Amino acid sequence: MKKQLLTLALVLLTMSWSVAQEKREIKIESSSVTNGEVTIKGQRVPYKATAGTMPVWNESGEPIASLFFTYYERTDVTDKAKRPLVYSFNGGPGSGSLWMHLAYTGPYKLNIDEEGYPLQPYGVSKNPHSILDVADIVYIDPVNTGYSRIVDKETPRSTFFGINADIKYLSDWVKTFTTRQNRWQSPKYLIGESYGTTRVAGMAHELQNSHWMYLNGVILVSPTGMGLDRSGPVMKANYLPYYAATSWYHEVLPSDLQAKDLDEILPEVEAYTLDVLIPALSKGGMLDPEERKQIAKKMAYYTGLSEKVILEHALAVPTSYYWKELMRDKGLTVGRLDSRYRGIDQTDAGERYDYDPALTAWNHAFSPAMNYYAKNVLKFDTDLTYNLFGPVHPWDRSNENTGNQLAQAMLQNPYMHVMTQSGYYDGGTDYFNAKYNMWQMDPSGKMQDRLHFRGYRSGHMMYLRAEDLATSNEDIREFIKNSLPAEGVPAKYW
């Protein structure tokens, strides 16, 4: 009994210490301000960086969570009313904002090679392609990602962890941040990557309809399905252009096709997908056997897979099988999020790979860089762990309608433009389905002049490839400039 009481006392002491430590470390409101400069397109850009935390409040005005953010402001700009402001989110759900922060649009970039592979020593260097020359940027970590944490343990997790809950509290937080920083007059943009596109698509509608904050633009980087229906034959067929791109990259296509440039191949495969494959898959078991064989032959031509494998899968090869099968004869797998990356499994047999070689390479480089950057460059001191991927599950995915919500926000706001950025080798959120999203958001074709698509020869995080880092940032730069209305031009239709 005495031993049990001693053990219980130690447990309680440890719990008490842990709670006290957590309370001590989580600062509901804090900030660290530093100054820096970066040269962009030959121009010196001085800036102020504020790394800090700001509360999420409940309806009673009590703080229930603390969100970590990093806010970059160009300091040689006097008229903030004309200065664009970009709110940046990553995805997951459960991912911190470090990916785009330290590798894409921010003033520093990750230490990686030209194709995006990790290098040692880990760290960062100045980013000459940052968009800080044309816009201020706020990188935001949702609850339980990065250094953001729940501070009221009585608040239900459902307040934060679900499609619509996430949109609601983050929109309220953005509204408050905008007010605190006196940026209501500024042109405003949202950028989201991966699940972050679901987030910002819904936030555009929420900000506009609940907080009366109207945006100039939304940038969707490697977008999800955003609740738009692409089930059945469409879902099965739409991966074919991605398969063709990846197979071309790994040089497994027939010689005549391999000799062509990717820009020549993809329009042909896209047309075949829309005009032949989707109608054929719609017929299911009614498809003529000879036609089925001819389609399998054409799909083998476009993918480098065998006709036998394609027929065994009834013309619908799953992505997981493709990543394992494509280079099976060489003992290699290809990545999901970036299919340029190759991996090795314990055995060559099986239906899917053991791990995603792209994601493991990225985690390898980002974690040490972010921990270094926060402490040594931003001067933000904390004992909290920076959660690349935080505990946010179970995540409520019910009642998702974010693609249509974004479309509604565009319909209501003639100023709003939307740009999609996709990597041709992204198998997680493939580029052709991203195009399909745009078509379904605008079935009448009335918003085509405000919907823009840009594709890159890389994967999910296209900016990790040096050539695409330059190009994709320039595309954002031009998107922002072109979505700023001329002075005196009213927001109205014809």
UniProtKB/TrEMBL annotation:
Alphabetized UniProt keyword annotations = Carboxypeptidase, Glycoprotein, Hydrolase, Protease, Signal
Matching entries from Pfam families are given as: Peptidase_S10
User: What stretches pass through the bilayer?
Assistant: none
Signal peptide residue numbers: 1-20
Q: Which GO terms describe its molecular function?
A: serine-type carboxypeptidase activity
Q: Which GO terms describe its biological process?
A: proteolysis
Q: What's the domain of life for this entry? A: Bacteria
Determine if Signal is one of this entry's keywords.
yes
| The protein, known as | Carboxypeptidase-related protein
